[in-house]
Specification:
The complex is a heterodimer of chains A (about 120) and B (about 400).
Chain A: E1 2-9, H1 13-16, H2 19-38, E2 42-47, E3 54-56, E4 62-64, E5 74-82, H3 85-93, E6 104-109
Antiparallel strand pairs in A: 1-5, 1-6, 2-5, 3-4
Chain B: H1 3-26, H2 31-52, H3 58-84, H4 92-95, H5 104-118, H6 125-136, H7 141-147, H8 152-168, H9 178-201, H10 207-226, H11 233-246, H12 272-285, H13 293-304, H14 311-327, H15 331-344, H16 347-357, H17 363-373, H18 378-391, H19 395-409
The chains are: A alpha+beta (about 120), B mainly alpha (about 400).
């Protein structure tokens, strides 16, 4: 069994939707995570709020951002247990983020600390 | 109270106090001696009271006899030590101080300290529960083996090994240092939680025994909640959880000992007093920044004490289970979460989610699917109930499932 990060890439919902719509998405996200946890496949996860974010550049310059105006911004991730990348991708399909056209879920295996990656 | 009822009653309430005080005084090295002295005290009581009638204050009488027996034992030891082995005399005056303090304060302190000592991580959880039942709750080996659905020999061996381990590891009977309390408290709460569940979910048919287990767990947790060093938020949360569950004790069993499902319970049998207590401790637990699994479970239990079958109730329960499963997965919680999903969202969605769980060796998995398919696809519902029936273990469970199948057949 491997662990996979399911990375949510999407626009900042607060910029495009009403608080009521946000609440619906929030519930759907919680139900989606609950479904994975009920299968005993949930490892960890967190949301990454868009406000008060910083980008540090190679010249050590710090700017505000990234801003959630583009669909490639990371909005959060969860880590799941799965037999294969395909099984992990099945979990990802249930994420409500995908309701937004152009939003994506990225599935990445977590490197094991055994030097083998 | 008549004498023949009084002695078992006193045994249950006083044996553990005497053992805790004596154990703390003697240390784990002489744990069996402490248990022997406590048992002999009750034997003496049974014999003496039979001839002379009840003393005016039976509890004080028991303490005095236990104190005397302990003193005699220490005196004999002292004689041995001074006459036979004089070389170990050096600090005997301190070590062989023969006073046995059975004041309420010392009894309470000793029991708390014993709780932490018994729940030391060096012995396995089931041994911690067994030893707690023996030492902290005064249960007999018969009752412990019945609670664990095991035999006396196995339990005796398990307790023996646990005592040996505590001796070998030189576990001291004391409260952990303040910095360590949170960590050690975890193990104590786990044991209390297991003890409660043993009573609440056990498949033993002995209702009285099961209820006793639950109330013993509550009593131990209440002691932690009442002590200034140990009344931490998870303690209050666990206590709330147990009060909420216990409030439904009378409603969840019928006169034949069969389980009554939540939906069919007579809510007038729910114990309002216990629900109030649960509410008090749930409020008290809501401080600090840690959200333990007990907090989540107590909140779920709180919603279960709310009679009205509202969307809000089930949405709250669903979200609590969503979070609970992230920190403490169990098949039961997964099934309960799916039931809440059906109530909060829809049966159709819950069926899809239920089948993903694929807990094919669990009767409740099939029973849940049967429940969800009922009214949607009654033939599938029946097949699922039949699968549940095939692996159900107790007559009470089989009865419930049989009834469901009967109801379904009327619909074909």
């Amino acid at each position: 069994m491997n662990e996979y990060a399911l990375i949510m890439r999407h626009e900042d919902g607060t910029k495009i939707a009403s608080p009521e719509q946000m609440q619906i998405w929030m519930k759907q996200t919680m139900d989606w995570i609950g479904s994975i946890a009920a299968q005993n496949k949930f490892v960890s996860g967190t949301g990454l709020p868009f406000d008060d974010a910083r980008v540090v550049h190679s010249n050590k310059m710090v700017t505000n951002g990234p801003f959630g105006e583009i669909k490639e911004t990371i909005g959060g991730f969860i880590v799941v247990r799965a037999e294969s990348a395909d099984e992990a991708a099945e979990f990802a399909k249930g994420c409500p983020v995908l309701q937004g056209e152009g939003n994506t879920m990225e599935v990445r295996r977590i490197a094991k600390n055994d030097g083998a990656h | 109270m008549e004498q023949q009822e009084l002695i078992p009653h006193l045994f249950r309430s006083e044996y553990r106090k005497i053992v805790s005080v004596l154990c703390r005084r003697f240390g784990f090295d002489e744990m069996e001696t402490a248990e022997d002295i406590a048992s002999e005290t009750f034997l003496t009581a049974a014999q003496t009271w039979g001839f002379n009638g009840l003393p005016q204050n039976p509890v004080a009488w028991l303490y005095r006899v236990a104190q005397n027996k302990a003193k005699n034992y220490l005196q004999r030891n002292l004689t041995f030590e001074t006459k036979v082995a004089p070389q170990v005399k050096s600090n005997f005056s301190e070590h062989y101080e023969t006073g046995i303090d059975l004041s309420p304060q010392n009894i309470s302190d000793s029991q708390l300290q014993m709780m932490f000592a018994i729940c030391h991580p060096c012995i396995p959880p089931e041994a911690q529960v067994g030893l707690s039942l023996r030492i902290l709750c005064g249960f007999g080996i018969d009752e412990i083996s019945e609670a664990f659905l095991s035999n006396k020999e196995t339990i005796n061996k398990r307790l023996y090994r646990a005592r040996e381990k505590l001796r070998e590891e030189k576990i001291r009977i004391e409260l952990p240092a303040p910095a360590e309390i949170d960590k050690r408290l975890d193990a104590v709460l786990t044991t209390i939680y297991l003890l409660f569940n043993e009573g609440y979910y056990s498949i033993s048919q002995n209702q009285v025994l099961r209820q006793d287990l639950c109330f013993e767990a509550i009593r131990l947790c209440q002691m932690l909640a009442d002590n200034e060093h140990t009344h931490k938020p998870p303690v209050d949360a666990l206590l709330a959880l147990m009060y909420f569950h216990a409030s439904r004790f009378d409603a969840r069993v019928n006169e034949n000992g069969g389980i009554i499902l939540y939906d069919d319970q007579d809510t007038s049998l729910w114990n309002a007093d216990l629900i109030l207590k649960g509410g008090y401790y749930l409020n008290r637990s809501a401080v600090g920044s840690t959200l333990s699994k007990y907090h989540l479970e107590a909140s779920i239990a709180y919603w279960n004490t709310q009679r009205a079958d509202t969307k809000e109730k089930w949405e709250n329960i669903l979200q609590l289970y969503n979070r609970y499963l992230q920190v403490a997965y169990s098949p039961v919680a997964a099934l309960n979460r799916t039931y809440a999903l059906a109530k909060a969202n829809s049966k159709e969605e819950a069926i899809v989610e239920a089948e993903k769980l694929n807990l094919r060796d669990n009767q409740f998995y099939f029973a849940l699917l049967g429940q969800l398919y009922t009214g949607i696809d009654n033939r599938k519902a029946k097949t699922n109930f039949q699968n549940a029936l095939a692996i159900a273990r107790t007559p009470a469970d089989k009865n419930i499932i049989q009834k469901k199948i009967g109801e379904l057949e009327l619909l074909f």
